């Protein structure tokens, strides 16, 4: 574990913190340049996965219904054969009324089975038609989303290519700058950075106000900030406050 050099003055601490903030803010700017593209790419990938699942399910359902229709048609053909068979037996003559009634009843049962099968076939065909319409719509959406994803990935790749080198250099600078800051302050800095969406943990005061939340800073506190003798937090937002001229020489007595 590398040893951090003991800082001799509060001003050094403030300069180092402000330097780290500026480096990290440049990294943030690069990532903002990427915008929402990484999220959009991930969302499109998730949507494509969902569309593929939906399409596979619909194709399976259409296949099952088509198989059902085929089996139902076979059942109708079998029923027609049985009706012919029973009708021929009746026409050839039966031994008694009991046998006649039994054959007549079988004919009626097969006719009912045919009616029921035809109804089921018609219902299944309507279901197939509806599912095929939904399936075709889903496939069209899938193709559009594939094109959208390809464009988003190309944009993201281009931006990453343009900024990757600069970002890596800044990340290395950020690591080196962080090594100059004592652990307690670095932890506070990181915690504050994660608190705010803009990532600003160290801000200057401008026009007598905090550069982060724009809360008013009392004159005495402004004087203390300019003197750079201690680390001061904004009483409104908790950010670390530094003199706007932190890079320049201190002016005592301001």
Description of the molecule:
The longest helix has 82 residues, at 97-178. Strands 2-1-4-3 form a 4-stranded mixed β-sheet. 73% of the residues lie in helices and 5% in strands. It has helices at 10-34, 37-92, 97-178, 183-195, 219-227; strands spanning 202-206, 209-210, 232-233, 240-242. It has 5 helices and 4 strands, in the order H-H-H-H-E-E-H-E-E.
What's the shape?
A: rod-shaped
Radius of gyration: 39 Å
Could you give the order of strands across the largest sheet? 2-1-4-3
The whole-number mean of residue pLDDT values reads: 89
**What is the N-to-C order of secondary-structure elements (H for helix, E for strand)?**
HHHHEEHEE
The structural class is: mainly alpha
Regions with pLDDT < 50 over 5+ consecutive residues? 1-7, 250-254
Proportion of helical residues: over 70%
Alpha carbon gap, first and last residue = 41 Å
Q: Major β-sheet, in short?
A: 4 strands, mixed
Q: How many individual β-strands?
A: 4
Annotation field: number of helices: 5
Residue fraction in strands: under 5%
